[in-house]
Amino acid sequence: MTDVFDPSHKDAHEQVVFCADAHSGLRAIIAIHNTALGPALGGTRFYPYASEQAALADVLNLSRGMAYKNALAGLDHGGGKAVIIGDPSRDKSEALLRAYGRFIESLGGRYITACDVGTYSEDMDVVARESRFVTGRTLAQGGAGDSSILTAFGVFQGMRASAERVWGTPSLLGRRVGVEGVGKVGHRLVELLREDGAEVVICDVSEQAIERVRQRRPEVEVVADAEALTSADIDVFAPCALGGALDDATVARLRAKVVCGAANNQLAHPGVEKQLAERDILYAPDYVVNSGGVIQVADEIRGFDMDRARAKAAGIYDTTLKIFEIASDEGVPPAVAADRLAERRMSEVGRIRAIWLSH
User: Fold this and answer.
1) Which portions of this protein are annotated as coiled-coil regions (predicted)?
2) Is 183 marked as a binding-site residue?
3) Is the CATH code 3.40.50.10860 the one for domain 15-66+77-141?
4) How many CB atoms lie within 10 A of CB 307?
5) Which residue has the higher pLDDT, 147 or 259?
6) 321 alpha-carbon distance from chain centroid
7) N vs C: which end of the chain shows fewer Cβ within 10 Å?
8) The domain defined by 148-291+317-344 carries CATH number 3.90.550.10
9) Active-site residue set
């Protein structure tokens, strides 16, 4: 387990908060990785973790990823994340969400939350009844609505940049794209890919999710599972389910030339990025290309404007290309180049924020 108090470790966190309310059944962990660029911003994941240790490991990893994501998205926000331990289909209630909102409010704005796996805009409306520090609310409540809209759009921009790098054109026309997970983000990505002329192959553990895609896009091919998808003859692999999709076995059998998807923490362990590079597979770092959602909810803080947020999310294309160029120039995998660029911004802007201002 990572030592969260070790300042020499890249995963050292500023603050980790454990939240419990026996009456509602709330068990949550809020992790603030850093606030160098501003208040931490990141979603709330509601998931039936096998143990508290598994939940802690996930929230620490996810909050670090948010720090890097927000930095490269050009946002004035640090990285944070929260997890609620439980089955959202069974354990979610108004009382639990409002209790959670009280804990968010108690942090005084150091952490701003939004949606993630297992939570929706309607849930954020409930949390916002107890806290000012909530984004991703419904349009009816003055929020940005479903952040999966710009998440999928941003992934598509990253995929266009990847196509430009590998095939010399920012188009997926005629390319065969395998999408693992067609939930909130994945099914929207399928729409964008089909509109661009790509052939699409999908898999998902949920038959309901697959059926939703089939109803809109009956031409989309369905395979049994992730192993079948990654073994298929595809040009692009888009992991859009949970993390850890790229492990040793997956990389070894992967036939795609590009990996670009919406899932967080796609690399199962350090070193996978080198294996991809050695196999000449271009990896678009997940926290770069899936930042459209956080761009969308961050815009809500200043009064949401979809056109403005979409224009900023379109910049993911240029950021992804820049990372590929740095990787090539410095002879490192794109994941390493992305980390360096994010750390540079956190360091440079964070240092400026040390200049004292009177209030």
Assistant:
1) none
2) yes
3) yes
4) 7
5) 259
6) 19
7) C
8) no
9) 81
